[in-house]
Protein backbone atom coordinates (compact mmCIF):
# COMPACT_ATOMS: atom_id res chain seq x y z
CA UNK A 1 0.00 0.00 0.00
CA UNK A 2 1.41 3.38 -0.99
CA UNK A 3 1.71 6.32 1.36
CA UNK A 4 -1.09 8.32 -0.28
CA UNK A 5 -3.58 5.50 0.33
CA UNK A 6 -2.48 5.21 3.94
CA UNK A 7 -3.02 8.94 4.34
CA UNK A 8 -6.51 8.67 2.82
CA UNK A 9 -7.37 5.87 5.25
CA UNK A 10 -6.23 7.95 8.22
CA UNK A 11 -8.19 10.99 7.13
CA UNK A 12 -11.34 8.90 6.60
CA UNK A 13 -10.94 7.39 10.06
CA UNK A 14 -10.48 10.87 11.50
CA UNK A 15 -13.67 12.00 9.75
CA UNK A 16 -15.61 8.97 10.98
CA UNK A 17 -14.48 9.21 14.60
CA UNK A 18 -13.55 12.82 15.40
CA UNK A 19 -14.48 12.41 19.06
CA UNK A 20 -12.82 9.02 19.61
CA UNK A 21 -11.63 8.72 23.18
CA UNK A 22 -10.84 6.04 25.77
CA UNK A 23 -13.86 4.05 26.90
CA UNK A 24 -12.35 3.34 30.32
CA UNK A 25 -13.45 5.63 33.14
CA UNK A 26 -10.69 7.24 35.18
CA UNK A 27 -9.89 10.47 37.00
CA UNK A 28 -6.12 10.17 37.50
CA UNK A 29 -3.16 8.46 35.83
CA UNK A 30 -3.20 5.87 38.60
CA UNK A 31 -6.85 5.02 38.02
CA UNK A 32 -6.15 4.71 34.29
CA UNK A 33 -3.21 2.38 34.98
CA UNK A 34 -5.34 0.10 37.15
CA UNK A 35 -8.20 0.14 34.65
CA UNK A 36 -5.91 -0.81 31.77
CA UNK A 37 -4.44 -3.69 33.74
CA UNK A 38 -7.97 -4.92 34.45
CA UNK A 39 -9.03 -4.54 30.80
CA UNK A 40 -6.85 -7.41 29.53
CA UNK A 41 -9.27 -9.90 27.96
CA UNK A 42 -12.18 -8.08 29.56
CA UNK A 43 -14.70 -5.58 28.23
CA UNK A 44 -14.34 -1.91 29.08
CA UNK A 45 -17.95 -1.92 30.25
CA UNK A 46 -17.20 -4.59 32.84
CA UNK A 47 -14.00 -2.82 33.95
CA UNK A 48 -15.91 0.44 34.45
CA UNK A 49 -18.44 -1.31 36.69
CA UNK A 50 -15.67 -2.87 38.76
CA UNK A 51 -13.59 0.30 39.11
CA UNK A 52 -16.64 2.37 40.06
CA UNK A 53 -16.78 0.26 43.20
CA UNK A 54 -13.04 -0.23 43.69
CA UNK A 55 -12.07 3.43 43.35
CA UNK A 56 -14.57 4.63 45.94
CA UNK A 57 -12.07 3.83 48.67
CA UNK A 58 -8.95 2.64 46.83
CA UNK A 59 -8.14 5.26 44.21
CA UNK A 60 -4.46 5.81 45.04
CA UNK A 61 -1.54 3.38 45.31
CA UNK A 62 -1.33 4.01 49.04
CA UNK A 63 -5.01 3.17 49.54
CA UNK A 64 -4.80 0.19 47.19
CA UNK A 65 -2.02 -1.29 49.28
CA UNK A 66 -4.34 -1.35 52.28
CA UNK A 67 -6.00 -4.32 50.57
CA UNK A 68 -4.65 -7.85 50.74
CA UNK A 69 -4.46 -9.73 47.47
CA UNK A 70 -7.50 -11.78 48.50
CA UNK A 71 -9.50 -8.64 49.24
CA UNK A 72 -8.57 -7.07 45.91
CA UNK A 73 -9.45 -10.29 44.10
CA UNK A 74 -12.98 -10.08 45.48
CA UNK A 75 -13.36 -6.61 43.96
CA UNK A 76 -12.04 -7.60 40.52
CA UNK A 77 -13.21 -11.22 40.27
CA UNK A 78 -15.61 -10.55 37.39
CA UNK A 79 -12.81 -9.10 35.20
CA UNK A 80 -11.23 -12.53 34.82
CA UNK A 81 -7.63 -13.59 35.50
CA UNK A 82 -8.15 -11.96 38.88
CA UNK A 83 -5.20 -13.69 40.61
CA UNK A 84 -2.63 -12.28 38.19
CA UNK A 85 -4.35 -8.91 37.84
CA UNK A 86 -4.53 -8.42 41.61
CA UNK A 87 -0.88 -9.34 41.98
CA UNK A 88 0.11 -6.94 39.20
CA UNK A 89 -1.94 -4.06 40.59
CA UNK A 90 -0.50 -4.47 44.07
CA UNK A 91 3.07 -4.88 42.79
CA UNK A 92 2.77 -1.82 40.53
CA UNK A 93 1.27 0.16 43.42
CA UNK A 94 4.18 -0.84 45.63
CA UNK A 95 6.67 0.19 42.94
CA UNK A 96 4.93 3.55 42.55
CA UNK A 97 5.11 4.20 46.29
CA UNK A 98 8.68 2.98 46.79
CA UNK A 99 10.36 4.13 43.57
CA UNK A 100 8.33 7.11 42.34
CA UNK A 101 7.11 8.93 45.43
CA UNK A 102 3.51 7.80 45.08
CA UNK A 103 3.06 9.24 41.57
CA UNK A 104 2.68 7.25 38.35
CA UNK A 105 5.87 7.89 36.36
CA UNK A 106 5.50 9.96 33.19
CA UNK A 107 8.27 8.37 31.14
CA UNK A 108 7.55 5.34 28.98
CA UNK A 109 10.57 3.35 30.17
CA UNK A 110 9.68 4.00 33.80
CA UNK A 111 6.09 2.89 33.20
CA UNK A 112 7.36 -0.38 31.73
CA UNK A 113 9.53 -0.89 34.81
CA UNK A 114 6.40 -1.25 36.95
CA UNK A 115 5.51 -4.81 37.85
CA UNK A 116 2.90 -6.24 35.49
CA UNK A 117 3.05 -3.33 33.04
CA UNK A 118 3.85 -4.38 29.49
CA UNK A 119 4.20 -2.47 26.25
CA UNK A 120 0.48 -2.02 25.55
CA UNK A 121 -0.38 -0.83 29.06
CA UNK A 122 2.58 1.54 29.14
CA UNK A 123 1.61 2.92 25.73
CA UNK A 124 -1.97 3.61 26.81
CA UNK A 125 -0.98 5.38 30.03
CA UNK A 126 1.84 7.30 28.34
CA UNK A 127 -0.43 8.50 25.53
CA UNK A 128 -3.73 9.04 27.33
CA UNK A 129 -2.63 10.24 30.77
CA UNK A 130 0.48 12.18 29.77
CA UNK A 131 -0.08 13.16 26.14
CA UNK A 132 2.83 11.15 24.78
CA UNK A 133 3.03 9.81 21.23
CA UNK A 134 2.36 6.07 21.28
CA UNK A 135 0.27 3.40 19.55
CA UNK A 136 -1.14 0.75 21.84
CA UNK A 137 -1.98 -2.38 19.86
CA UNK A 138 -4.94 -4.21 21.35
CA UNK A 139 -7.02 -6.84 19.54
CA UNK A 140 -9.00 -4.21 17.60
CA UNK A 141 -5.95 -2.24 16.47
CA UNK A 142 -4.17 -5.45 15.50
CA UNK A 143 -7.11 -6.79 13.48
CA UNK A 144 -8.18 -3.58 11.75
CA UNK A 145 -4.71 -2.30 10.85
CA UNK A 146 -3.71 -5.62 9.32
CA UNK A 147 -6.98 -5.98 7.43
CA UNK A 148 -6.75 -2.49 5.99
CA UNK A 149 -3.12 -2.93 5.02
CA UNK A 150 -1.63 -0.30 7.30
CA UNK A 151 0.42 -3.18 8.69
CA UNK A 152 1.32 -6.72 7.62
CA UNK A 153 2.51 -8.28 10.84
CA UNK A 154 1.94 -11.54 12.73
CA UNK A 155 2.21 -10.07 16.24
CA UNK A 156 1.07 -6.95 18.12
CA UNK A 157 4.69 -5.97 18.70
CA UNK A 158 5.56 -6.02 15.00
CA UNK A 159 2.25 -4.34 14.16
CA UNK A 160 3.16 -1.47 16.47
CA UNK A 161 6.50 -0.99 14.73
CA UNK A 162 4.91 -1.01 11.29
CA UNK A 163 2.15 1.39 12.32
CA UNK A 164 4.75 3.81 13.62
CA UNK A 165 6.28 3.79 10.15
CA UNK A 166 2.94 4.09 8.34
CA UNK A 167 1.38 6.80 10.51
CA UNK A 168 2.79 10.29 11.21
CA UNK A 169 3.92 10.54 14.83
CA UNK A 170 1.47 13.39 15.48
CA UNK A 171 -1.38 10.96 14.71
CA UNK A 172 -0.15 7.94 16.67
CA UNK A 173 -2.29 8.35 19.76
CA UNK A 174 -5.38 9.47 17.84
CA UNK A 175 -5.05 6.65 15.29
CA UNK A 176 -5.03 4.16 18.15
CA UNK A 177 -8.54 5.30 19.13
CA UNK A 178 -9.76 5.58 15.52
CA UNK A 179 -8.81 1.97 14.84
CA UNK A 180 -10.45 0.78 18.07
CA UNK A 181 -13.69 2.57 17.21
CA UNK A 182 -13.69 1.12 13.70
CA UNK A 183 -13.08 -2.36 15.06
CA UNK A 184 -15.95 -2.07 17.51
CA UNK A 185 -18.45 -0.45 15.17
CA UNK A 186 -17.69 -1.82 11.70
CA UNK A 187 -14.70 -4.14 11.32
CA UNK A 188 -15.89 -6.81 13.71
CA UNK A 189 -13.83 -9.87 14.38
CA UNK A 190 -16.24 -12.53 13.11
CA UNK A 191 -18.56 -10.65 10.75
CA UNK A 192 -17.05 -7.38 9.52
CA UNK A 193 -19.63 -5.06 7.99
CA UNK A 194 -17.70 -4.63 4.75
CA UNK A 195 -20.65 -3.60 2.54
CA UNK A 196 -21.30 -0.54 4.73
CA UNK A 197 -17.66 0.35 5.38
CA UNK A 198 -16.54 3.62 3.81
CA UNK A 199 -12.96 2.32 3.79
CA UNK A 200 -13.68 -0.74 1.65
CA UNK A 201 -12.35 0.86 -1.53
CA UNK A 202 -8.93 1.15 0.11
CA UNK A 203 -9.00 -2.02 2.20
CA UNK A 204 -6.79 -4.98 1.31
CA UNK A 205 -9.00 -7.42 3.20
CA UNK A 206 -12.09 -6.31 1.28
CA UNK A 207 -10.27 -6.51 -2.06
CA UNK A 208 -9.18 -10.05 -1.26
CA UNK A 209 -12.50 -11.36 0.07
CA UNK A 210 -15.22 -9.47 -1.82
CA UNK A 211 -15.10 -11.77 -4.87
CA UNK A 212 -15.74 -14.76 -2.62
CA UNK A 213 -18.92 -13.06 -1.36
CA UNK A 214 -19.96 -11.89 -4.84
CA UNK A 215 -19.59 -8.28 -3.74
CA UNK A 216 -18.37 -5.38 -5.81
Number of helices: 12
In total, how many beta strands?
Answer: 0
Q: How much helix, percentage-wise, in residues?
A: 55-70%
- Tell me, rounded to a whole number, the average pLDDT: 95
Task: Report the major sheet.
Answer: none
The proportion of residues in beta strands is under 5%
Written overview of the protein:
There is one protein chain. The chain has twelve helices and no strands. Helix 2 packs antiparallel against helix 8, helix 9 (139-148) packs across helix 10 and helix 9 (139-148) crosses helix 11. The model has no long low-confidence stretch (mean pLDDT 95). The chain is elongated. The two termini are 20 Å apart. The protein is mostly helical and 216 residues long. It has helices at 3-16, 29-38, 44-54, 61-64, 69-76, 82-99, 108-112, 119-129, 139-148, 156-166, 172-185, 204-209.
Helix and strand topology:
Layout: H1 3-16, H2 29-38, H3 44-54, H4 61-64, H5 69-76, H6 82-99, H7 108-112, H8 119-129, H9 139-148, H10 156-166, H11 172-185, H12 204-209
Helix pairs in contact: 1-11, 2-8, 5-6, 9-10, 9-11
Keywords:
single chain, 216 residues, mainly alpha, 56% helix, elongated
Task: Please give a quick description of this structure.
With 216 residues, the protein is mainly alpha-helical.
Amino acid sequence: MDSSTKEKILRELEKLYPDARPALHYATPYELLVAVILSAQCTDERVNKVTAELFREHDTPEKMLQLSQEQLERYIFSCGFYHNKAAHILSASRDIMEKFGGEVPREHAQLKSLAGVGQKTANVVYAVAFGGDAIAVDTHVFRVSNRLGLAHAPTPEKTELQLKEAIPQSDWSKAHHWLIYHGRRVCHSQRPDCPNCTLKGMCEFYAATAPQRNEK
